[in-house]
Design a protein that fits this description.
This protein has one domain: Cytidine Deaminase, domain 2 (3-Layer(aba) Sandwich). Helix content is 16%, strand content 41%. It starts with a strand and ends with a strand. The structure holds zinc ion. Zinc ion binds next to loops.
């Protein structure tokens, strides 16, 4: 599976993660899936609270056509055990960003927490 995200969308998410640091920023990602390619094209904020180390979300508020999630970590991109528990409820691909939150500081994972390819797409291409 490959994830393709719009560059302006990813830049917006990274800016939010930077503002929220050292707390975590969390958003759900919408878009479409064609075979093994997931296109990430928009994001949704949903009600959530900050945990000590991780954002806690209410699964009942997850919109239906969700393709994945984005959240930030204060240190590394490695998915936590909690991340792997919620990933299967939140779509197909999951992005984790870490400081300094530039375009290189984001990794994509599948629902099992295995790293997958992330391609950043320029708008209009
Ligand atoms: Zn996490």
């Amino acid at each position: 599976m490959i994830a393709i995200i719009r560059k302006d969308l990813l830049e917006g998410l990274l800016a939010s993660a930077r503002r929220k640091y050292p707390f975590e920023f969390f958003a759900l990602l919408g878009g479409r899936k064609e075979n093994n390619i997931v296109y990430l094209e928009e994001f949704y904020y949903i009600p959530w609270k900050e945990g000590y180390t991780h954002a806690i979300i209410d699964i009942n508020h997850v919109p239906l056509h969700i393709m994945g999630s984005f959240h930030s970590h204060p240190t590394s991109s490695f998915p936590s055990p909690q991340d792997k528990t919620v990933f299967p409820f939140l779509g197909y691909v999951h992005l984790i960003a870490f400081p300094p939150f530039s375009l290189e500081n984001v990794a994509a994972f599948n629902t099992e927490g295995k790293r997958i390819r992330l391609r950043v797409r320029e708008p209009g291409t």
